[in-house]
Design goal:
- The chain has two domains: about 5-195, Transcription factor LuxR-like, autoinducer-binding domain (Beta-Lactamase); about 200-275, Winged helix-like DNA-binding domain superfamily/Winged helix DNA-binding domain (Arc Repressor Mutant, subunit A), CATH 1.10.10.
- By secondary structure, it is α+β, with helices and mostly antiparallel strands.
- About 50% of the residues lie in helices and about 15% in strands.
- It has helices at about 25-35, 45-55, 85-90, 125-135, 170-200, 205-215, 220-230, 235-240, 245-260, 265-275; strands spanning about 5, 15, 60-65, 70-75, 115-120, 135-145, 150-160.
- Strand 3 and strand 4 (about 70-75) form a beta hairpin.
- The radius of gyration is 22 Å and the shape is elongated.
- The termini are far apart.
- A seven-stranded antiparallel sheet has the order 1-2-5-6-7-3-4, sandwiched between helices.
- The chain is built from ten helices and seven strands.
- Keywords: DNA-binding, Transcription, Transcription regulation.
- One of its GO terms (biological process) is regulation of DNA-templated transcription.
- GO terms for molecular function: DNA binding.
Length: about 280
């Protein structure tokens, strides 16, 4: 196994995510069971259970940090009181503003990568005290992927002070597990968002949001954007509305011009902003 490590000024260890082979049969079985849980409600608990077959972990969390709106997507704790939500709130109470524990620039390691540091190696005292010491966490092992120059998407696996530190063998096993784990989490989050959009919204509900917030859209533009948000194909929209396909695309283009967007995924993000804005 080739492992590329480089220590930063505050001793965080980082190396490229290569998927090295270690305990192959066990890891393959754990991955298979994680994959079967994609899209189900207790996916977070299933992941932690399977990771604990490979190596002991106290809790885990999945979040995006570094931008203006940090967000935690998943978390759970293994066979102890779950304090992950409390520790996230503690993190957002100030430590996130100066968090340098995910900086990869100085390591020369490209994303995605694995990072590893102990509580005492957390570079800012506020972060160390309010999160790690307050919640008795001793160590963090992460799969880190840069989403922009400022934002980091991270899968984090923590140990508590009553657990021993990660061994080299366990780090090797985690390296083998990490690529599939990152892919499974990404897929689960994508499916969860799609399911939320499909189940929680109807054409009428989406249309009403746009109608209230963007009165400049015409009736037909509202018909088209509402169905586009819900994932209907343009052919399907044409059939649903009794229009020709070129006509549907004309309404789409006019609506996109008014909204100053260019792609379907931008329309979905725009709708979510409108739907979550104070009334």
């Amino acid at each position: 196994m080739t492992r590329i490590r480089q220590d930063t000024g505050y001793k965080m260890r980082a190396w490229r995510l290569e998927g090295a082979a270690s305990d192959a049969a066990l890891i393959q079985d754990a991955v298979a069971k994680i994959v079967t849980g994609i899209g189900v409600e207790d996916f977070s608990h299933q992941v932690l259970q399977q990771v604990n077959r490979v190596m002991p972990v106290g809790c885990w969390s999945v979040y995006r940090v570094g931008g203006s709106q940090p967000r935690m997507f998943l978390s759970s704790t293994y066979q102890r009181k779950d304090t992950t939500a409390d520790s996230w709130r503690a993190y957002l109470s100030g430590p996130h503003l100066a968090d340098k524990s995910f900086i990869l620039d100085s390591t020369g390691i490209t994303s995605p990568a694995i990072t590893h540091l102990t509580a005492e190696e957390i570079p800012t005292p506020l972060h160390r005290d309010k999160v790690y010491r307050q919640f008795d966490m001793s160590e963090r092992l992460s799969v880190v992927e840069a989403e922009s120059q400022s934002e980091i998407f991270a899968l984090n696996f923590y140990r508590y002070n009553d657990q021993r530190l990660y061994s080299d063998h366990e780090l090797a096993a985690f390296e083998a597990l990490a690529p599939a784990l990152l892919a499974a989490v990404r897929r689960h989050l994508a499916l969860s968002q799609q399911s939320h959009l499909t189940n929680a919204m109807s054409v009428d509900a989406v249309r009403l949001i746009f109608q209230a917030r963007r009165p400049d859209l015409t009736e037909r533009e509202l018909d088209v954007v509402a169905r586009t948000v819900l994932g209907m194909s343009y052919e399907g929209i044409a059939t649903d509305l009794g229009l020709k396909l070129p006509t549907v695309k004309t309404y789409r283009n006019r609506a996109f011009d008014r909204l100053d967007i260019h792609f379907r995924n931008e329309l979905v993000r725009y709708y979510l902003l409108l739907a979550s804005a104070p009334k």
